[in-house]
Design a protein that fits this description.
With 473 residues, the protein is of the alpha+beta class. The protein contains 14 helices and 18 strands. Strand 7 and strand 8 form a beta hairpin. Helix 1 runs parallel beside helix 14. The longest helix is centred in the first third of the chain and has 20 residues. The protein is elongated and about 75 Å long. Bound molecules: flavin-adenine dinucleotide.
Amino acid sequence: MSNQWDVIIVGAGSAGIPSSIFAANRGAKVLQLEASDKIGGTLMLSSGQISAAGTKRQKKMGIEDSPDEHYDDAQRISENTIDPVLGKLAIDNAGATYDWLESIGYEPIKSHPVAGGAHEPYLKRRYHWAENAAIAILDVLKPIHEKLADEKKIDLRLNTRMREIIKDNSGSVIGVKADTHDGVKEFYGKNTVITTGGYAHNKDLWNELTPKIPLRSWTNEFSLGDGLIAAREIGADYDGSDKFLCTFAGVLERPEDPFSTSLGMQFSPQVREPWEIYVNSYGKRFVREDHPSVHIREHALLKQPNQEMFIIFDENIRQNAPCINPLMEKTINNKYGNHPNYSKSKTLTELATAINVPEKNLIETISKYNFAVETGNDKDFGRVRMFGKIEKPPFYSIHAGGITVVSPAGLKTNESLEVMDTNGKIIPNLFAAGEVLGFTRLSGSAFVNGMSLMPAITFGKLLGEKILHWKEN
Ligand SMILES: Cc1cc2nc3c(=O)[nH]c(=O)nc-3n(C[C@H](O)[C@H](O)[C@H](O)COP(=O)(O)OP(=O)(O)OC[C@H]3O[C@@H](n4cnc5c(N)ncnc54)[C@H](O)[C@@H]3O)c2cc1C
């Protein structure tokens, strides 16, 4: 039957591309459905930070490391919240994935690997990224993928959005239904692989799965949770909704639009020491603003109502501090007082009203902070660097909040990436890889360096390279 493939891969992003490359190279007749008009998925947005142990690069640089050490280190950072089976599978195979990426032309920054970057550092140097972020990864995958598509070894269908997974009477998956430019079509295959990414661009699904976490999202517009929804429809199990860690922090350009997060706020004290203070919706400080650990700052923000914070400062700070958002250096001053999330007031009383926090608390918080500046002793939070009192009007606030770049929950699979149903049984012929498994499965309740992108690429590769079978079934 011409409408029959060995392998159907749904999605052509970080996990889907390697999956189709490896399956096609093993001789499979591959169909790849991609909702967007181009391949790449989140590789087009991601910072591209990947970790791996036991790589050729590490050996060349004299770094002694092993997957076991990487695994223990990742569990240390995540406080043992990474799924042990899939975590081990990802980390044991990350070295080979990394070596493969370099063998096809990927070049990280010369001095890499490093131990840390944006998140908690590893104990060893096993963390890399390239000048051009994840585009550097896409740039080496794309030509290989294109060649296989030209040779008709991968039948790539762009603008084709999978909507349903089809099962036969015995309960085995036999294909998918998708919206195509010719209407809804069915495609049949011996293996169906779901690599549709996360769901943090789908407000309804987000609110259903993580109702306590307000959505402020910086994600791919096709991260709509289609794979999770379709698999759930046929009885697949999922979890991970209870684990989440927000990223510190973002501002919504349009307060009612959770996808309008603007980039560029600089909170890392290693990059820009904070001159401001951060208060919650009670008008109280909640964290040592210059705490060197982003993990601690993120967890502190996670505990605040609505994961909201207000960055408070005065005219002195506005004039003398390095701009808090270098990307907006030229425009930010026009926003104060003219944008719902950027306030400017003549008095603290007016500022408290403008940002809707209790006036008494805000005034008390600022007076305590000013005393800490005067005495050089921040008794409440132990802040080390304080650059000046908050006393010169006008007073300013930027309303920010915890943001997400990933989706916490996802499909449950076994160690062969076969999707499990709610009775703990595998759904025959259905596999999944990438963020559709849930970010927290591989990174737990923390941001463990590189533990979303590298597992996505690795699992995609493993599926195509050895897990999927077509001749014998
Ligand atoms: C800003 C940002 C920075 C990040 N930085 C890092 C980092 O430095 N390190 C790290 O480890 N992780 C990082 N991540 C996370 C990581 O990049 C992602 O988890 C990973 O790329 C997801 O890969 P994926 O293959 O699961 O999904 P994607 O790469 O998003 O691919 C999914 C593909 O499926 C397609 N699709 C969706 N639905 C359908 C459908 N119904 N039918 C057909 N196709 C469909 C999509 O269009 C997309 O092409 C970051 C994420 C973001 C947003």
